[in-house]
Amino acid sequence: MKLLAAIGFLSFVSLPAQAQGPKACEELKDEIAKKLDAKGVKGYTLDIVAKDKDAEGKVVGTCDGGTKKIIYNRTPASAATPKKEETPKP
């Protein structure tokens, strides 16, 4: 009886997730960027690529019905913060 109740509960809980349907890539990319920014993550890129394309980085989401994926990459520290040039002292 407990097993039947658990199965019923889990199927009820998963309904809202299925009702949302597939997300548009730009919408999901914006949501991921907001979460990263809220955590204080700096110096990254999020790229949308085809599902079957090899791309460097970590897959952080899929979109457009699973036909595309969002790739997270850290940018080099030197590109994020330009190096200051020192002026020679006379």
Description:
This protein is an alpha+beta fold. The chain has a domain at 21-76. It is built from three helices and three strands, in the order ααβββα. The protein has helices spanning 2-19, 25-38, 77-80, and strands at 44-50, 58-63, 68-74. Strands 1-3-2 form a three-stranded antiparallel β-sheet, with helices on one face. β2 (58-63) and β3 (68-74) form a beta hairpin. The longest helix has 18 residues, at 2-19. The protein is flat and about 35 Å long.
Helices and strands, with pairings:
Layout (H helix, E strand, L loop, with lengths): L1 H18 L5 H14 L5 E7 L7 E6 L4 E7 L2 H4 L10
Antiparallel strand pairs: 1-3, 2-3
Q: Calculate the terminal CA-CA distance, rounded to whole Å.
A: 87 Å
How large a portion of the residues is in β-strands, by DSSP E? 15-25%
Radius of gyration: 21 Å
State the helix count.
Answer: 3
Structural class based on helices, strands and sheet pairing: alpha+beta
Q: Considering DSSP H and I runs of 4 or more, what fraction of the residues is helical?
A: 40-55%
Low-confidence stretches: 1-19, 79-84
Please give the largest β-sheet.
Answer: 3 strands, antiparallel
How many DSSP E strands?
3
In one word, what is the shape?
Answer: flat
Mean pLDDT across all amino acids:
75
The SSE string, one letter per element, is: HHEEEH
Quick recap of the structure?
The protein has 90 residues and is of the alpha+beta class.
Task: Sum up the structure in keywords.
alpha+beta; 90 residues; single chain
